[in-house]
Write a structure and sequence with these properties.
mainly alpha; Jann2411-like fold; 6 helices
Length: 187
């Protein structure tokens, strides 16, 4: 088993990226207006500029699509590296160390708090994906194994054994179905 060595902010950003991709894959559009976007941003601690307009929401939706494509191609390392590099370039990622009262550990920011929201999010998410790639852990980007579920997940388990998302209770449903099948075959 490998020991995970990702920083707290990398793990949080990977989870935020996964949640963003899933925001239109399970139960329809979950980021359809500014209030739902604000709730998502607040839930993951995003700071800085928020324009709270239709253009900003559309840019976040475009980022979501781009990240979904990265997840879909994660089994092709060169393609994924090219997509992450393009995202780093397009967002003009420029790393600098910072800390906040609510997060006193040193961590990286990759864009100015004054840059547009989707640019900041894209830069942070691209860097978290770059950390995953540099650590040889790209296979941690997965799609849920439950039938008819297209949600993505980042498997942060020690042994990379996570198979199901946590968006729709997929793991429990699959375990119950397997149990019922075993019981039916016994009797």
């Amino acid at each position: 088993m490998s020991q995970l060595n990702f920083t707290h902010d990398t793990e949080l950003t990977l989870r935020a990226a996964s949640a963003l991709v899933n925001s239109d894959r399970v139960e329809g559009e979950q980021l359809g207006d500014q209030s739902t976007l604000d709730a998502y941003l607040d839930g993951y601690g995003w700071t800085g500029r928020r324009d709270r307009d239709d253009n900003e929401l559309a840019e976040v939706h475009r980022l979501r699509e781009r990240l979904g494509q990265i997840w879909a191609g994660a089994d092709e390392e060169e393609r994924t590296v090219a997509a992450v590099n393009a995202l780093l370039s397009d967002t003009r990622a420029s790393p600098w160390l910072t800390r906040h009262p609510e997060m006193p550990e040193w961590h990286l920011h990759l864009a100015s708090i004054h840059d547009p929201l989707a640019q900041r999010m894209g830069a942070e998410m691209a860097m978290a994906l770059a950390d995953l790639i540099r650590g040889g852990e790209l296979r941690r980007l997965k799609t849920c194994s439950a039938p008819e579920c297209s949600a993505v997940l980042v498997d942060l388990s020690r042994n990379r054994s996570r198979m199901f998302c946590d968006t729709g209770n997929c793991g429990n449903r699959q375990h119950v179905a397997a149990y019922r099948e075993r019981r039916a075959n016994q009797g």
